[in-house]
Amino acid sequence: MTRTRFSRKRSPEPEKEKAGGGGAVMRVIVPLQGVVQGSGGLVLGSIIPCALFYFLQFYLKRNRDDPNDQNESNSPSQTQNPTTRSPSSGQLTELTGLTRTPSRPLLSPRSHTGPVSISGRVHGIVKGSDSPYYVGLRRVKEDQYDELGNPNGVIQLGLAENKLSLELVKDWLAENASHAILGNGKELSISGIATYQPFDGLMEFKVTVAGFMSQVMENAVSFNPSQIVLTAGATPAIEILSFCLADAGNAFLVPTPYYPGFDRDVKWRTGVEIIHVPCRSADNFNLSITALDRAFNQAKKRGLKVRGIIISNPSNPVGNLPSRESLYTLLDFAREKNIHIISNEILAGCTHGNEEFVSMAEIVDHEDVDRKRVHIVYGLSKDLSLPGFRVGVIYSFNEEVLAAAKKLTRFSSISAPTQRLLISMLSDSKFVQTFITTNRERLQRMYVQFVAGLKKLGIGCIKSSGGFYCWADMSGFISSYSEKGELELWDKLLNIAKVNVTPGSCCHCIEPGWFRFCFATLTEKDIPVVMERIQKVTETCKLKS
Amino acid sequence: MGLLSRKATCNSHGQDSSYFLGWQEYEKNPYDETKNPKGIIQMGLAENQPKTQMQQVSKEMANPFSKNLLFSKITMAIPEFKKALVDFMSEIRGNKVTFDPNNMVLTAGATSANETLMFCLAEQGDAFLLPTPYYPGFDRDLKWRTGAEIVPIQCSSSNRFKITESALEEAYQQAHKKNLRVKGVLITNPSNPLGTTMSRAELDLLINFITAKEIHLISDEIYSGTVFSSPGFVSIMEVLKDRQLENTDVWDRVHIVYSLSKDLGLPGFRVGAIYSNDPIVVAAATKMSSFGLVSSQTQYLLSAMLSDKKFTKEYLSKNKKRLLKRQNKLVSGLEKAGISILESNAGLFCWVDMRHLLSSNTFEAEMELWKRIVYDVKLNISPGSSCHCTEPGWFRVCFANMSEDTLKLAMQRLKSFVDSMNVNDSNKSHQELKNARKSRSRNKWVFRLSFQSFHDREQDER
């Protein structure tokens, strides 16, 4: 449980330096205690530590001037930072440890000898691809399951892609695409799309996206196109908001478990921190204000300025929908602390079941004062099954944020022909309505069947109404109630059952044993196959315990 | 209400430079042949608008084969596109160099590519050396979110703005004085705003420099397909290959940025690329490219077109001819107005010498002149100061983004402006002369000065 907190504590400081100094000191103090307790006496007991302390400072100072050597000499003394080696958070904690030490170049004039390296941001990349998320993806790529072609391949249950209604999109494109991009064929309207466009998207496209978002949220709220900034996917949308709302060294509060991509989108290049707000199975993984408050106060004690809260609604990986009251409470909290709320609503169209989806936009619809602190992120990757088209949305009531975000979209603009194509598609309201309804029906069916299948194997899932995955409790099947046990089970599932699932530790879940199973890349026929395979592993685990 | 971050509210993104102010003025009053013939003509936007590529793209859309490709794997990026792009890049370089698709990272435009490379190679406290004058957008793209700094390599008109060894050394020392660590050099080849290709000597010099200092070199070759006359284009990769440096350290430290925005005239498609021989840079850039990927639909749209070798060959040659013709028109139009340019063989613009039109050899005078040209003559051109040129009086004038008629009109307007300037100036000095003669209480040296300036001006305008 303290594992994640431990790594959080370390991150603001230059990790490697501290570890080196600490390790060296430990190796000296223990024998020293023996000297003092033995014949050395009080005098030696005070002189020797002082002398050693002086030499320690000298040693540290010398190492600081030579950053290249330091990195190598400190790698053996990793005892104080076990988290940098643990596979689950390996990639991402390593990145945290090495990013942004802006004070360093200003402290001491850099030595200009020695070959130049790449930036600190990049060091963790190559080693970091040991995270289960990426290992699993690679395995699937190498050996992908195919019903006819490769029946023994690895089944992908770890990628949150929605293929259930993809053929509806394909059919529409087959009929309408060329017409949509080029216009009515009589005039070449390509010159309209080839030239430089406004970086934050065509106004026409913003209008259609606003309309689509409304439709997806069942017209409970209407969106104003002039409050939209379009980006090449939701990934840059989150990064841009992070750049706009926080400075390097500030933090966002994020309830765990959360989408692993946030570590990259919110923190990586921005230098902003994420503070985990743990949610528990006892609360059905719903966010509690007590936990939020506690996390906020802890951040304050550590001297971290909290700039906002990031929630996902529907949440990923759990799939639950925050209730209307909880959203009001959240807004009250944000008001009290004077911070922002970013609501990632990219899965708004992927709700099923009976619970009501309430957008943050609806909550602030009636509140004039607090609107400026609420920002919504959306995209077409999940709801329309078009991740490749790269369409993301920042929706905000705050003009300053919109103006700043607009300037940053030059680095992440949506391709103009893609916009044209989608304008046509999203304006076809008949298609959109059919799509949304069919998508929800299919999701519901798959969800029910998948969860029932898992239940038969003795695996329970959190009741959820959103997303195309389920959050399953496999703590009964892990050998030890720890991250290690969880990863062992994950490994078995990947290599014996040959299914790629996402372990809860990737999502920073505080309780070990939870896994996310995505079912939207499957067809109904595949479910029994999947269940059979999982059974292979659960049987052996049951036998053991 | 909580404030925004420092990055969001700072001004170091250079968005207030005159380069962009000109655009804003243009937006308020854009020229249109029929609807707004007195509007401002846009000569500040380096856009290429050939018609042939548009016809080809529409042809591809109607092709049933590519239709199937488009719809079968909508959500994924396709390897065929990368392969087609590297082949296209090779072709532009006369097939003297080949590129490996695995070393290429696609990004949403060269803007994103430059920023991503900078994120990979530099951070706060680091600097890159850039030869002046340079593209004003670099101040924003390379510095804003990355925290890196730019230190200029001063180039002057005395040697036609070529990079010299002493200028490189000086810039390097300058960076150290500012307590910045130099991470590399960034060049644009062919150059923006100069419109010239770099000579082999310059490229050799750069390679020697980065080898000695053990730093990186980024070569932004976005205009490589717009070289329309001799000397031809020499890519940095070609020079490295010729010097047989493939297995040395320096091979890993040279990176190329490319895009289809200028050569193919498709900036709206947002297709850019980073090419590097260093696998770590490629891995990091690939990960960062998530923040700006190329739309899969766009990749499909262009893949067939770029793989059509017949089309690309024809297109490249037609493009060159068209650019040459257009540039000649601009040059002759300027000559008629008594204005010369830096001899250029590439790009979509010319580096124009208007030093003789300045009231004084200062940047204030340059701004004055620029304002008159934008507001009175109604031409949006880019002043040299926005490109960090060390000498006042140079302007970048684009010619590829308008029809021939519009170009003609622009040249006419400029000529009348220059003519009127001559008349005004001669009238002004004449008047001064008269006043000086009339007032006896004036000091004689004032009289003498005004008389002399009248003579000087006449000589310059010839």
Automatic annotation (TrEMBL), chain A:
Biased amino acid composition, Polar residues: 70-102
Domain Aminotransferase class I/classII large: start-end pairs: 155-534
Presence of the UniProt keyword Transmembrane in the record: yes
GO molecular function, one term: 1-aminocyclopropane-1-carboxylate synthase activity
Record keywords: Aminotransferase, Membrane, Pyridoxal phosphate, Transferase, Transmembrane, Transmembrane helix
Pfam families reported in the protein's UniProt record: Aminotran_1_2
Segments crossing the lipid bilayer: 41-60
Region (Disordered): 1-21, 66-123
InterPro entries in alphabetical order: Aminotransferase_I/II_large, Ethylene_sulfur-biosynth, NHTrfase_class1_PyrdxlP-BS, PyrdxlP-dep_Trfase, PyrdxlP-dep_Trfase_major, PyrdxlP-dep_Trfase_small
Protein name: Aminotransferase, class I/classII
TrEMBL record, chain B:
Residues of the signal peptide: none
Gene Ontology annotations of biological process type: ethylene biosynthetic process; fruit ripening
Cofactor: pyridoxal 5'-phosphate
Reactions performed catalytically: S-adenosyl-L-methionine = 1-aminocyclopropane-1-carboxylate + S-methyl-5'-thioadenosine + H(+)
Domain of life: Eukaryota
Aminotransferase class I/classII large domain segment(s): 41-414
Protein name: 1-aminocyclopropane-1-carboxylate synthase
